[in-house]
Amino acid sequence: MTRPEDLRTEAATDEVVHRADHPQPDFEHDAGHDSEHGSEHGAAHEIAKEIAHEQAYVDRVYAELAKAARRAGLVEADGLARGRTDRTGDVRDEELTGLFERDALVFNAARRRTTLESQYEGLVFGRLDLDQPGPEGEPREARYIGRLGVRDDEYEPLVIDWRAPAAAPFYRATPVEPMGVIRRRVLRCKGSEVIGVEDDLMVAEAPDDMVVVGDGALLAALTRSRGTQMRDIVATIQRHQDEAIRAQARGVTEITGGPGTGKTVVALHRAAYLLYSDRRRFESGGILVVGPSAAYTAYIERVLPSLGEESVTMRSLGDVVDGVTAVRLDSPAAAAVKGSLRMRRVLARAAHDAVPDAPTTFRAFVAGRAIRLDPPVLDRIRAQVLRNHQRNHALPAVTRALAEAAWATHREGERDEFLDAFEDHLEVEAFLRQWWPQVDAREVLLWMTDGARVRRYGQGVLAAGEAELLADSFTRTLETGEWSVADVALIDDLTSRLGVVQDEPAEERGFYEIEEYDDLTQYGVAEVRATRQGAAPATGRQSQRTLDPRDRLMHGRIGGPEEYAHVLVDEAQDLSPMQWRMLGRRGRHSSWTVVGDAAQASWPDAAEAARARSEAFGSQERRMFHMDTNYRNAREIFDYAATVVRAEVPDADIPAAVRETGVQPMEVTVDTAGLVAAAEAEVDRWVDEVEGSIAVVAPAEHAAALAGLTGTGSGRVQVIDPMSTKGLEYDATVIVDPDEITAESPGGVRVLYVALTRAAHRMSVVRVA
Ligand SMILES: Nc1ncnc2c1ncn2[C@@H]1O[C@H](COP(=O)(O)OP(=O)(O)OP(=O)(O)O)[C@@H](O)[C@H]1O
């Protein structure tokens, strides 16, 4: 394991060549690198020789790959040709069976071809030299590791898939436990060109004919500039990370650790590993990856495809429920109420309530009798039916209950005849349309723009002021035409209570029926509005932008929960209890990978969230992996952040940073008037110094003033609020007004800690005096 004393500076990463007959320093894999430089000339020559040697092998792999791609293309074309037929009858049936075969062939061939194409970049990334003879009389076996298994014409493996058991020593071997490995080599490639090699030696003394090159692949990888998207770490996965990646699929795998310890990237590699180890189960059952925000999803979305896996569903918390997408965040106080389990009681009452403006009395002539059912009877029927049925699926049950109640008012004639006549009666049908319409969950939340209603639902559940907070928040929703992220879990909860809105069969009514229907007013039935209370789906032609806010909110169709074989949750410490319930509905039979760090939590009631989380997992076995090495932040940056969090959260999980830059974070203090200029100066500083992404992390108070900062149009600068930086990383950050970041957030200093741990290489902190 890496200790601070093992730290290297970025300057120490120039490639070196050494004969491996010297003791090795301890570094991460417990594998080390000889730091002794050979003569510069000799070194360059040796490296070039090694690269040329590896290039020859990589060329062979790509030639084989091109052949495989051609074969896959042929299979695909052949499959398509076999599918064309103009036969009929039995012959056609036979050919249809052939069609299924064709589909499977085409599907597999197309998938393989796409995979082959997408793997082109850096397909082969590793080599193991093993302490055992090779297949063709070589003194040692060399085993190449890649993103994909590739075999030659004799079906001999040229490259082993990184997830195969035979590749495990690449990640697990250490000098203490070499697992038969003498040298582990990482090949750095650009497309099919080898541009560098980095070795780790697993034995004290290498054979005389073996050259050891470079200063370690991990440090080289960490020193590189960060792009706008996360990269896979398949070439440099560390042993303890590999253990979490390859942990068994069953049950709940929890990955904890401080900032930058690779929790997210490890979890994503685990998803790829699960697909490899049990493809049938996880591809057909599906893997759901859930992260905090759309920005986060965009940040990680390329990792799995780069590992050859496309069949994973990625959702942000505002996007988990089919038919609604939310990015807007509520005020922390409103989000805290909406996320709390107390909302279940509130929503249960709302789901059981009468539809606003529905008729309160039933009056009609049925089978020659005047029937009247008063409000208490209707209320009782509603309550009884909803005890056993979801509202949107309860029409038959409620119709029967209404008929029974109507029968009870007279009890004359044939009971069954009356019940049938009642249930078929057009007046009854018309009444039910108004009294028992299908109700969309979103409509119920919009009922709660009415403060009196929310107070009624929240009686004995919500504290003073919370009902108003909710009503105000839903009013804001209605004004903006945008659901908030916290609303989505409420929509899901209500949908599970109400049932998904069913398609109504198209109505075909004769002329006389229309007349009868329109004439209902004379029976006092049509005291209701003629419009439906439920969703008013917008037409496909209308773009969402042109809809009014209410229609925008109701746009799209809310789906029931789709279930998955595996659910992977990142930044799990921030999920509200209601969000855990939302995910629980999607993972009732699934295994889980759950990633989090309590010290970065922004959710105020940890105990309630823990309860909801346990409920979502059920009684499955749970195993824990802890990550304790920070691979993201330069040590100088992480020390700064750790000092801040330790002062307030003494038990924070503080990892050890493995890399130092020799550059301390910049700290400037200005008055409010000078804030923008100071932030701009810091941005310009980092635009000159780093190659990649730069973030200005600012509290809401200063967001508008700083919005124009672009780093003189560099295209690399983003102004972002602290909460939205969760899970992300940048080459450099400018943290604006840290005291205000702490003050504005319910997570307080924990949210500031998140912001302070986003920069890989450089950071400035602009304080306001
Ligand atoms: N073995 C590794 N090799 C190379 N890079 C690594 C390795 N492990 C982690 N990293 C890099 O470290 C950085 C942090 O990883 P990641 O975002 O997964 O951490 P995290 O624990 O989820 O962080 P946070 O909790 O702060 O969001 C990423 O750039 C990742 O690629």
UniProtKB/TrEMBL annotation:
GO terms for molecular function: 3'-5' DNA helicase activity; ATP binding; DNA binding; hydrolase activity. It holds the Pfam family AAA_19. Keywords: ATP-binding, Helicase, Hydrolase, Nucleotide-binding. InterPro entries: DNA_helicase_UvrD/REP (IPR000212), P-loop_NTPase (IPR027417), UvrD-like_ATP-bd (IPR014016). GO terms for cellular component: cytosol. PROSITE patterns: UVRD_HELICASE_ATP_BIND. ATP binds at G257, G258, P259, G260, T261, G262, K263, T264. One of its GO terms (biological process) is recombinational repair. Residues 236-634 form the UvrD-like helicase ATP-binding domain. Residues 1-44 are annotated as: Disordered. SUPFAM superfamilies: P-loop containing nucleoside triphosphate hydrolases. PANTHER family: DNA 3'-5' HELICASE, UVRD / RECB / PCRA DNA HELICASE FAMILY MEMBER. This is DNA helicase IV. It comes from Pedococcus cremeus.
